[in-house]
TrEMBL record:
Keywords: Hydrolase
Residue intervals of the MurNAc-LAA domain: 881-989
Highest taxon above the source species: Bacteria
Compositionally biased intervals (Acidic residues): 1002-1020, 1106-1121
Any one GO BP annotation for this protein: peptidoglycan catabolic process
Enzyme class: hydrolase
Name of protein: N-acetylmuramoyl-L-alanine amidase LytC
Gene Ontology CC terms, in alphabetical order: outer membrane-bounded periplasmic space
Bias type Polar residues, positions: 43-52, 69-80, 105-114
CDD domains associated with the record: MurNAc-LAA (cd02696)
Signal sequence extent: none
Amino acid sequence: MFKDAPNRKKLILVLSAVFVSLTLLTGVLAYLSGPLTELAQGPAQSEGSGPSESRPDGEQGMDGEISEQDGQTADSSQASVPPDVSAENPAPPDASSAPPDTAGETGTDSSDNGQADEPVYFNVPTEMRGVMISAGTDYLTNGTDVSAQELATQLDEALAAAQQLTMNTVIIDTQYGDSVLFESSALESAPLGLDVTEYLCAKAREMGFYVYATYDVSTRSGGEGLTADGAALDDLAENIGAFAEAYKPDGILLDGYECADSPAAYAGYLQSGGGMGYEAYQRQVPRALLETAAAAVRENAPGVQVGLYAQAVWQNSDADPDGSDTKAETTALGTGNADTRAFVKDGLFDFVMVKNYGSTNEETARFGVVAAWWAGVVDGTDTKLYMMHAADRVGTQSVGWTVYEQLTAQIIRLEEAGGSSGSAFNSLAALRSDPGGSTTTLIQYLNDEINEQWVLTQLAVTKPAELTFTTQEQTVTFQGASDPQADVTLNGEKIPTNESGYFTIREELKAGLNTFTIEHKGKSLTYNITRIVQVIKEVSPTGKISVDGGMQVSVSALAYEGAQVTASVGGQTIQLTETEDDTDEAERDSGYRLYVGVFTAPSASATATSMGNITFTATAQGETQTMQGASVTVNKLAVMGDGAVVYVTADQAETFPTDTLNDNSNPNYFPLPQGTVDKTYGDEIVYKNGSVTKTYWKLESGVRVYSSDIKASGGAMPDQNVISDMRIKTSGSYTTVTLDMTQKVPYKVEYDGSRLVFRFQYTAETPGSVDGKGIFESASWDGSNLVLTLKKAGGFIGYRAYYEGDSLNLRFHNSPGGLSGARVVVDPGHGGNDPGAEGFYPGKDEADINYAIAEKLVADLKSQGASVLMTQPGSTMATRLAAARSFNAQVLVSVHSNTAPNSSAKGTEVYYFYPFAKQLAANISANVASALGTDNRGAKAGLYYMTRESQFACVLAEIGFLSNDDEYTKMINSKYQNRIAEAIANGVSAYLGGTSSGYYGSDDEEEGDDEDSGDEDSGDAVESVSLDREKLSMRVGETYQLEATVRPRTAENKDVTWESDDEDVVEVSPSGELTAVGEGEAQVTVTTDDGGETAVCTVKVRGDASDDEQDDEQADPEEGVLVESISISGPDELEADGSRSEYTGEVSPANAEDPGIKWSVSDPDILEISKISDDEHTVYVEGLQEGTAYLIAEGYNGSEAIEKFEIRVVS
């Protein structure tokens, strides 16, 4: 982590290689009075030319201490302090006195005298945190006319500022215009009374800083143009050698080496190019300059690191496949002719510092792209990599730099990418100015004082979606995310945010233009919203509708909340009342409310009559508006028998009442199967709602159906149907009632919780009653009405009717009694191009949250033995339901998230359509509310499409409100998503347990021919009973269905009773459903009626989720660690005699975030899991029949760990 404090240094002993450019220079001087002909021998290519030497690796020292054989340290620099400041600024300590926290690497100093090489010591920060100090910005801001004392004071202030910013390195910019800021016998020094470089080196070392300095290798005494002839190289070697020997900084950054196309470069070529070609000359000049400079530094000051001060982009990838994914206009190789990549790869430098001045989101040279590319270059070398950041761009209009946290974001990106040894900032003055608090944030982050997530959070507004728009709404809601440490203002007024920085505020809109400006951390968004006063937004029905006489017609309007709404038609005035919109079309974020009323059409006559148009009137906020609805025609008087004979073409034809007209499904009406024959009466009924037109026919059996679901048959009207036989068959999954019929007549279904009644139409004869089987206690006839009495009240979870020839099959689901063996469909709401409701944070909207919870729910259900299908997000609702039917689902849970204009709305609510799914909705709502620590709004009847299915129990769960910042914060949290998924799974388990009728048996015999019919439970005496959980943890308000297994399977009486020893802690229902009532511990005992065998589950109950929310969020230091492998131990052979064997699983690593194991078997006909321990690491398995199958263990939460253990079952 890049977080070193100042005064911390690391003494690194590294090998210094002498790379003297003697060969180069000799060749240069030898050819025609010194032209660069020898350089022409090397090709101009991206990897550079000529061989290069590598300095051998040194040995690693201990804690910065060097043993005797390591030799002597390099000479220290001695500062020459002017007389007028020497008393305040004593000479610096010897550089060999390394800081106490440094570590060392040793290298050797190779020489030509044949003597043993001596080790070289480098001062290197563990993690550089540096800042550039430059003349004109950090000192000499008013020119050079200052005294030495005043200049020293300015330099002292600069160093003090760097120390206050917790920098550990200063980088001295030694150039000031055309002058240098150090004493030189050959170069032009700035006319100052103080040697700036000497003073800064001494004072910085005294204050504990590492000291680096820049050096422009193109600076020379006299001469015009950029050249590398012998004279120029000699000058460079002499000048930089003297500089390094005199000042001995910890490192020198070589700059000014590029040879771009220019008159000066061409002049140099003409002077000394020697005919090698201009392009080749340009490529050779940078290498010659750098090699000469590096060799001179190492010869004169072996303890000084030599560094390359590199342009950000070597070459764009479109020009060279080895280049970076950038679009820079200038590049080191392409425009500067400097093969910086090759220089580093060839080991010419001890370090490289990259001028990485792009932002994290610009396209030309994105910061992260550049950093990653350079990390790849130094990988495998001994060259350290540093980044120079453009502190002077913060707050400017350059791309990405208007965001004041840009520097901090760059540090975070650098840490994530790795490969860098630290950073420096190109302007001390810019850091000191702290624009928009940018430096404060940077330093706080470097010192671990703020959260990384906050730094990266900028102002993000998810509502409203557009900056300029027109609306009829009375209010507007601003919702979004921010950095919780910085204020958010709306039109200059601070608005409240929560601890995560989320905010939501609702503002009234006046008629006309409304302007709002939101500001945060230097970013502002201005909204121009024009409100048009529209009291009534839309009405229904519209267009032209045809109704039958006496029919009750529903009318509705969307109008402002609190409005007075009426409708008038044909002399009638209807008062509309506000009601909750529980349809898929509901706009939950809107300030409009649904108003509903009903009028009765007049009696029909011999001809069709017109009632005129429906006129809606609404008054709100002093405004009254009207809107015209549908024109209504009353059909002529219908005569029974005049209609057409039709048959049902849809697989299942939805039915509606005949005395009302709307398109609302009715939970008291069940569908008719394909092939059913009936007769229409009256005229076709037309109902238009917006752009959707629905047409219906009434049938003589007393129902209304869609016109598209039937077709004229041309046959005879069904009459005098004979039901000649009735059979009941049961299997593990279904109880099927089969009726042999002479005609495919319609019927109506009634369900009251304890029995189902099928009222067959046009039927003259029925067979006798039979004993019950499967889920039914009995099957009897009351005239033409079939009465199916349930063994267990509430034991009906859905059915499907279908014809096979002339036999009508009524196939009912047998509840599996729990999740093991259950077939569950999980439907993540929205998805694809439909994000659903917006959250506070971009990219974390309803569809994303629904999907995350759904994935965890699928894993949880499967881990408990359920077969699970997850529907495809983004597909149509019809497609999803069709997939669920094909899957033969027993339960469907559609996962959704709520929203409201009022940010205080909160809680969990679950919708159902058919009454037999109400308990499922109630279970899930209670459990999820407890897991989320919010209000339980309960089970609610609704008209949602995904719930309007009679073949299985289906509900739509609104987990919580995305518009409530507290619930949203939890719902995007992985831990809470896990809790929610578990809560839903437990709710499904409890529902299936509560609807189970026990052992169903399996047979293929006709009930009427079986002497033992109804006695499927006959068998042996009970020997034992076990529970699926011996220990269980619950939260107050949760429910859980305990599953009891009575053995042997052939036991005659499997009835059990349940008891809790402390009902103030846990209550238990007659079916074994637990309800956590209060905190504490209780024991729940199951006892068999036959033999009094018992099993016990110890239940610990904690407070609801809000009680331990803080503890949970602070726990789990290994968040994100996944299980990598699982091992299974246990016997590899079982006997098919009903006995159980224990198997254990061990996960690695042991500190995984979720170390639980999902257990399953490859063939449930051969192996059965009878119990899983509370920690899920122990499982009990029973062999059922001969064969070989696998016991399978899998990891949770995206872990790919899976282990299969082969088990052979023998007789």
